[in-house]
Amino acid sequence: MIKKRAIVINSKDNVATALDNLKAGEVIQEEVDSLKKNIKLNQDIPFGHKFSLKEIPSGSPVIKYGEVIGSASKLIKVGDYVHIHNVKSNRGRGDIKGGSQ
Amino acid sequence: MSFLGFPREDGSVGVRNHIGIISVVVCANDVTLRIAQQVEGAVAFLHDQGCCQTPIDLNQVTKTLVNLGKNPNLAGVLLVSLGCESILIEEIREKIAVSGKPVKTLGIQQIGGMLPAIAEGCRITQEMVIQASTIRRESFDDSHLSIGVKCGASDTTSGLISNPAAGAAFDLLYDHGGTCVFGETTEFLGAEHILMRRAATPEVKKKIEEIVTRMERRAKMMGVDMRGGQPTTGNIKGGLTTIEEKSLGAIVKAGTRPINDVYEYGDKITKKGLYIMDSPGREPEFLTGVAAAGVQIIIFSTGIGAPQGFPFVPVLKVTGNPNTGKYLSDHIDKFVKLPEKGENTISQAGEEIYEEVKAIASGKKTKAEVLGYGQFSNIFTIGPVI
Asked: A70 and chain B: CB distance < 8 Å anywhere?
């Protein structure tokens, strides 16, 4: 069996976390809604960073640990790198001067 | 499912059988330490409090010392004072003695200084150790276990494996009818709404909101907006996107079960279930707080590698970082692997941690216990030193 490249913490999650430095174009196999799916990465994903398992429309929740960790600030496609450039916090942001929004 | 522990008169069960030499004031630390160093079977509890403080803090220190003395891992207690401190040693003695265990006191000024105090302290403790050595371990079911959880020196692996695995172990103990205690209120920020949803009653929900608001208010009095800078630049670089994600990665160590109640720092927790103790995240104060709650063992999830133990509560160090597991093997008791294949690693790691907790409960020593790492504790206080 091939080495696992990413971890999905909770079955409700719509993002996975990279367990290695992953490259754009790499295909990751993950279970999504109880089905094995091949997810082609659209960008490089560094270790510990996230990519999308599903399409997440702008304004929709991003889910990790089975809980909402923020909202998509633009459309996130399957295999997209998910971070501060396309997710906004619903409870406060550290990368924006002045803090919570 | 059972473990081997020491029966106590108040119905609690110890996983260790120490005599606690407890300093009631910072000025008695030196004598306290010398007695514990001399007598095998004794452990010292040292701290910086007990005098020249506001009444609210003196009450908090008194309550915490009483509840530390009642911790089931102590078979007996010797309280050491200077003599002129604000804190009342006799009040502490009486309240610990309610538990049925032997409690003695020693005053440095009354007895004539450090040397006679050490000599008398050693004589008293020697007798207590001999008495305690006759107590035998017996089999108890897991519902007699009370466990704390903490994370510190965290890294990316903490939120991915060691914290969720600690949480899975907490869920197992909850389901076996035991007591689970977590805290570190600062880490709730951004995820407090999720904890509130897990509250067993509307009152508990309100209490969770109150302790978070109170903690933020205290920080604001010092001119600090705790929510503003989160997640930090370093967190973002490590892959954390929002404050919710960061806080969820921390609180996942407390599992998924309903939160039965919220306690103040230093309170004793005797009920079964999952509880929050309002507490800071810093190790010396946090570990003392949960030891006062009455936990027998603390699960400590770490990424980079935190060495701290506690004088009379074994601290089980868990990491998911393979480098830390290897290079800090002096401190790490349990390495939990990130998934390599398709297996459900989190629940499996949770079961492994739970088994390790029971082994430690039955007498297996932790790395911090063997090395004596954890001699310097403290008690959380709020007001100024006067």
From this structure: yes
pTM: 0.94
Query: Which residues from chain B sit within 8 angstroms of residue A62, using beta carbons?
Result: 241
Q: How far apart are CA B49 and CA B67, in angstroms?
A: 16
- Name which of B277, B279, B259, B260 is nearest B268 in CA terms: B277
Three-state secondary-structure class, residue B139: strand
Q: Give CA–CA dist B174/B274, Å, rounded.
A: 7
Touching check for B197 and chain A: CB below 8 Å? no
- Does A34 contact B at CB distance below 8 Å? no
Q: Contact B7/B13 with Cβ under 8 angstroms?
A: yes
CA B223 to chain centre: 29
Q: Which of B241, B244, B247, B341 to mutate to test the interface with A (most CBs of A within 10 A)?
A: B241
The ipTM is 0.90
When CB atoms are compared, the residue of A4, A18, A47 closest to B342 is A4
B258: cis peptide before it, omega within 30°?
no
Per residue in B33-55, pLDDT (tens digit) is 999 999 999 999 999 999 999 99
pLDDT of A98 > 70? The answer is no
